[in-house]
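ugh ok fine here u go
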Amino acid sequence: MFIEQKRLVKEIALCSLFASLVAAGSFIKINTPWMVPFTLQFPISNAAALILGGRLASLSIITYVLVGLMGFPIFSCGGGFGYIFKPTFGYILGFIFGSYVCGTIIEKFKTESLTVMIIASFINLTIVHFFGVLYGYLIMNYYLDIQKKLIYFLINWSMIFLPSDFLLCVLSSIISKKIKMFRVIEFKNKGLKNTKI
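structure:
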């Protein structure tokens, strides 16, 4: 019973930590002419997936989203329930689903392979871009009545960011691998079993 309670407390702490980090990442941004700012939210959410696994990573992103929708200005352009009508909200939804899939892949393979982590990160990135482009297209054309062709979003909301996002996939994978290796060494030094969170 005590072990389960300790495990639950640890999970809550980790989810809170990464939710806070994603929120912090939204404030480190570079505005672009295409409405989509460059932020550090993706690499942080990707690291959460690689380190925590699919369930906890997605829960941490959901926590971040719910807090933002409650009115706290932790999204890149503010907060509040009305944020769901922002064209870029699709990327935030993508963080949830992408981190779950990415983390689940890592859990399924049960490996610390950097190659697997990078491939899982690329899949995460693909999901995030899919949600971002599709959601932006639908909101702009059918809610805001600003007519833009899908190719506009594919180029300006996805392809332009791919080189930097690929680099962030690799960097977040390398950092996550280092963190996971440190945890293994720490557990071994303490004579403890490195059980999955």
